[in-house]
Amino acid sequence: MTVQTPLTHQDFKSDVKPIWCPGCGDFSVLSAVTKALAELGRPREDIAFISGIGCSSRIPAYTKVYGFHGVHGRALAIAAGVKLARPDLTVLAAGGDGDGLSIGGNHFMHACRRNVDMTYIVMDNQVYGMTKGQASPTTAPDWCNSKLTPEGTGISPVEPVRLALAAGANFIARGFAGNPNEVARLILEGINHPGFSLIHVLSPCVTYRPEQRDWKQAVHASDATPAQLIAEAMHRLASDDGFTTGVLFAGNRQAFMPPRRNLATIADLERKFAS
Question: What's 102's DSSP letter?
Fold first, then answer.
């Protein structure tokens, strides 16, 4: 009998060289993803990685699993379709704060609500990095270093974890790209938790937001066990400063999976159209 050697995190990295800017937090997220998949222990062909558009959405190309670089903001719709059609697969989706919470905001809300068993990794740098530094949905209202908003946006930012909780996500965690081992652990826990899991990763863009280097001093680990009740989680997040890392909510909703129906064969379809 042939004994299969366990895959390492290097086995999940493709030969495509990342083209992110030097110092981008997404490098660490890629490392965390490959470590989590190696720990998961599933064959590479049993994993699907879906993304949208943006700096962070390049990540499936840098992994050696089935990947799909999709349409702007539609990663979750595609990922849900993959999981519902192939429930045997481990399905991950990835995107940034712009892709996931602006043009993809409606899909994000309904993905949380539907609670399909998949894991969504949002790399949040509070800026549109690929299109040269505009304010994003998570940008603070007084950030004025963009030529488009030189006096700040004046608009309250989206709070991804609060939005996910309100919309019905079953697992919510936050990590910091500067601690890839923790991010890997959170991704693995999200994959293993039933239902829709959000992994919110603070991933600095040192090109357009160099001040985000200070996030290393700002992040702090949660000192509480994960909330299991929505009311408890809402109470905690009401006073959250946006830099608490760890598992913030682990719910017990049943994952959504509609009944499987017998699919028509090609011959069935040909007979139907012939009549």
Answer: I
- Indicate the class that CATH gives domain 9-274: alpha beta
Write out the two tokens for 181.
Answer: 């081992």
Task: Give the helix/strand (H/E) hosting 183.
Answer: helix 180-192
- Burial class of 69 by CB neighbour count within 10 A (0 to 12, 13 to 18, 19+): middle
This model's pTM is above 0.90: yes
Indicate if the alpha-carbon torsion angle 110, 115, 116, 117 is positive or negative: positive
Taking residue 13's Cβ as centre, other Cβ atoms within 10 Å add up to: 17
From residue 217, give the alpha-carbon distance in Å to each of 49, 176, 180, 242. Answer: 31, 11, 16, 13
Coil/strand/helix, residue 148: coil
Place of tokens 């700040």: 152
The alpha carbon torsion through 65, 70, 75, 80 (nearest 10 deg) reads -70
Q: Are the C-beta atoms of 250 and 226 separated by less than 8 Å?
A: yes
Mind listing the pLDDT tens digit for each residue in 95-129? 999 999 999 999 999 999 999 999 999 999 999 98
State pLDDT tens for residues 12-55. Answer: 999 999 999 999 999 999 999 999 999 999 999 999 999 999 99
162 — pLDDT class (breaks 50, 70, 90): very high
**H helix or E strand, kind and range, residue 237:** helix 230-238
The encoded tokens of residue 241 equal: 């400063």
Q: How far is CA 165 from CA 67, 141, 169, 225, in A?
A: 27, 23, 6, 17
